[in-house]
Amino acid sequence: MTVEDLLYQYESAIAERGVLLRSKLFALLPNIQEVVDESARIIGYGYGPGYKDSICTIIPSKKGIKLGFYKGVELPDPAGLLEGSGKVHKYVSIKTDNDIESKALQALLKAALEAYEVRRMAK
Fold first, then answer.
1. Which of 6, 33, 55, 104 has the most C-beta neighbours closer than 10 Å?
2. How many separate domains does the chain show?
3. Which long-range contacts (CB under 8 A, 24 or more apart) does 82-85 make?
4. 51: helix, coil or strand?
5. Which domain holds residue 81?
6. How confident is the model over 71-111, as pLDDT tens digits?
7. pLDDT tens, residue by residue, 39-70
């Protein structure tokens, strides 16, 4: 299954927002790898096959798009974008195209990349 196959199972506004978010991830995260998890219905982004190499996930649903962060509880979030009750992972609800372009979201992605680089050095 391709990314487009997964995203376009949802209404077009949600799918198009997912495509826009995807392009932003490729722009901000150099050489990121993309993997569709068909059974979980998510798209993972990271720098290797392991869970510890994960940066984030696009989580489409009938209600909208979320951008999940691996170890999101550890990321600085001065704008208060992160949501979720998980003890490890958090997500940002992407409600508009402007959310994708926000400086706060870009800062979270930068922090997630920096956290990955620290994990990589610790291996």
1. 55
2. 1
3. 82/108
4. helix
5. 3-122
6. 999 999 999 999 999 888 999 999 999 999 999 999 999 99
7. 999 999 999 887 789 999 999 999 999 999 99
Please give the backbone phi and psi of residue 30, each rounded to the nearest 5 degrees, phi first: -55, 130
CATH number at residue 91: 3.90.1150
CA neighbours within 13 Å on the CB side: how many for 90? 17
- Give long-range contacts, CB 8 A cutoff, 24+ apart: 28-37: 28/106, 28/109, 28/110, 28/113, 29/55, 29/109, 29/113, 34/3, 36/1, 36/2, 36/3, 36/5, 36/6
Residue 109 sits at the vertex; the CA angle it makes with 104 and 115, to the nearest 5 degrees, is 125
Tokens of 111: 């922090």
